[in-house]
């Protein structure tokens, strides 16, 4: 189950990755026409409509993303199957169709069916499509039907399974929708406290990758909250909508750089030059894009108490922003780029106060991390023992030779990530030990035959921020924001 949830969390990143496009388009529209939502300017309307086209169809995007992420091969057939399945369910269960199927008046149809085109249904269809592909994509039919064998069979079966799902949802969807609405209303009823709890658990789930599932409840139209979508629309309540986003800005733009600076200043003098790049890259990534994992994974496992403090401070930031109704929104994460785009959004409320809170958070994170590292003698990067430093110096001195030797044995590629990719494959026990490899926003995720063969020391020598092993077959390597390029290089050598 744990492995399944991890893979699901990873799969959710694919559709989430298109949200920056929506945020950029709508952000430009708001800058052109900050009060009229495009009514006062045709160019603004063009950009806003282009962005809303993405946000208004997240259900089908999640269906495709989950199908691709959960299938054994990122084959186009599984994406096509997801589209087919989603269209079947959303058309069969449209309000007019339900009224006809149940023999009732349109006004008597449960309101849940007006929201059937949603992320929750998209995830269900994605899972069904992936399972169907994994099980039947190599199935051979009798000669008379041979044309429909293999991958062509998958969309046909998914359409059939989607019909069965439609019958099931016809009777249970009103109950599911009602439960989701109740959950969302309960969290909304908690107000600022609910926002704080969301922020706290969001950070606690980062090590498992399951925070994406939690985010879907609050950020998208799963439980009726849809904080990201509503923030970009006229449905927003100024000062309230955005409460599940705003408090992340002080943490990601200022708190994480403050923590990175504290860890750099805490490093031993002879190691500061070696670790400066790690902390600088992590701090810049967090500030600009809101991707905090490169910094978080530096201290997450060596100092769990620091990570717990980090989670508490995140919850506190969410609570403070929600209490004072400071709101801003994002399309991807709470970095400077998204913050800048949201400034002209009509729904943003006192967003400059988030910068004030951020400045305070920079100092708070810096002071707490410096104090805790010194008092608890936490071995963050650059504070290793003299023996470990000597071993690292030896390996770093030999690294070029090893990389050259590895590269010499390849098919002659010269891509900048080739040597790194080969070292990482070597670090996870070699290509023969790899069953599959995928990536999310910052991590390589390996499914291995035996993760006891993982050489964590070798992997860390490549500059990776950390290694996580779960169960007996799964391992994750924290790469950073350039993970896609590294994943492509690794994939080439695995092939």
From TrEMBL:
Transmembrane segments: 12-32, 44-70, 77-95, 115-133, 153-173, 179-201, 213-231, 243-262, 274-291, 297-316, 323-341, 353-373
Record domain PTS EIIC type-1: where: 1-385
Coiled-coil regions listed in the entry: none
Keywords: Cell membrane, Kinase, Membrane, Phosphotransferase system, Sugar transport, Transferase, Transmembrane, Transmembrane helix, Transport
Subcellular location: Cell membrane
Recorded GO MF terms: kinase activity; N-acetylglucosamine transmembrane transporter activity; protein-N(PI)-phosphohistidine-sugar phosphotransferase activity; protein-phosphocysteine-sugar phosphotransferase activity
InterPro entries in the cross-refs: Glu_permease_IIB, PTrfase_EIIB_Cys, PTS_EIIC, PTS_EIIC_1, PTS_Glucose_EIICBA, PTS_IIB_1, PTS_IIBC_nag
Key word RNA-binding present: no
Domain PTS EIIB type-1: 418-495
Active-site feature positions: 440
Bilayer topology term: Multi-pass membrane protein
GO cellular component: organelle inner membrane; plasma membrane
Biological process, per Gene Ontology: N-acetylglucosamine transport; phosphoenolpyruvate-dependent sugar phosphotransferase system
Protein name: PTS glucose transporter subunit IIBC
Organism of origin: Macrococcus lamae
């Amino acid at each position: 189950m744990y492995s399944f949830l991890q893979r699901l969390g990873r799969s959710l990143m694919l559709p989430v990755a298109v949200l920056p496009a929506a945020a950029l388009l709508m952000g430009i529209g708001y800058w052109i026409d900050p009060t009229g939502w495009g009514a006062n300017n045709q160019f603004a309307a063009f950009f806003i409509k282009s962005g809303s086209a993405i946000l208004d169809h997240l259900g089908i995007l999640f269906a495709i993303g989950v199908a691709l992420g959960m299938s054994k091969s990122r084959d186009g057939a599984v994406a096509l199957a997801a589209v087919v399945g989603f269209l079947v369910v959303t058309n069969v269960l449209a309000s007019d169709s339900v009224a006809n199927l149940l023999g009732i008046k349109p006004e008597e149809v449960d309101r849940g069916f007006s929201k059937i085109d949603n992320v929750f249904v998209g995830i269900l269809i994605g899972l069904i499509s992936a399972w169907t592909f994994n099980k039947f994509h190599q199935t051979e039919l009798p000669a008379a039907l041979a044309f429909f064998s293999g991958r062509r069979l998958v969309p046909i079966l998914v359409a059939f399974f989607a019909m069965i799902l439609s019958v099931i949802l016809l009777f249970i969807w009103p109950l599911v929708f009602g439960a989701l609405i109740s959950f969302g209303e309960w969290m909304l009823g908690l107000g600022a406290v609910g926002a704080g709890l969301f922020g706290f658990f969001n950070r606690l789930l980062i090590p498992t990758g399951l925070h994406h599932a939690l985010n879907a409840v609050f950020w998208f139209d799963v439980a009726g909250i849809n904080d990201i979508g509503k923030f970009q629309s006229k449905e927003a309540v100024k000062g309230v909508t955005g409460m599940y986003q705003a408090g992340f800005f002080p943490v990601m733009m200022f708190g994480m750089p403050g923590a990175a600076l504290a860890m750099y200043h805490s490093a031993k003098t002879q190691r500061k030059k070696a670790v400066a790049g790690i902390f600088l890259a992590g701090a810049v990534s967090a500030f600009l894009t809101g991707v905090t994992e490169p910094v978080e994974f530096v201290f997450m496992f060596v100092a769990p108490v620091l990570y717990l403090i980090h989670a508490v401070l995140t919850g506190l930031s969410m609570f403070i922003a929600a209490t004072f109704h400071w709101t801003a929104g994002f399309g991807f994460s709470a970095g400077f780029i998204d913050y800048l785009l949201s400034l002209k959004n009509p729904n943003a409320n006192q967003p400059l106060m988030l910068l004030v809170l951020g400045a305070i958070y920079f100092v708070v994170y810096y002071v707490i991390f410096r104090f805790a590292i010194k008092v608890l003698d936490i071995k963050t990067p650059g504070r290793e023992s003299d023996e470990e430093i000597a071993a690292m110096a030896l390996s770093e001195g030999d690294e070029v030779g090893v990389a050259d030797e590895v590269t010499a044995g390849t098919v002659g590629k010269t891509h900048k990530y080739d040597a790194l990719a080969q070292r990482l494959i070597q670090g996870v026990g070699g290509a023969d030990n790899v069953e599959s490899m995928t990536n999310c926003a910052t991590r390589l995720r390996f499914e291995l035959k035996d993760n006891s063969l993982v050489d964590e020391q070798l992997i860390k020598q490549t500059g990776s921020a950390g290694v996580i092993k779960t169960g007996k077959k799964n391992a994750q390597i924290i790469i950073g924001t350039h993970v896609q390029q590294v994943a492509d290089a690794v994939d080439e050598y695995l092939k």
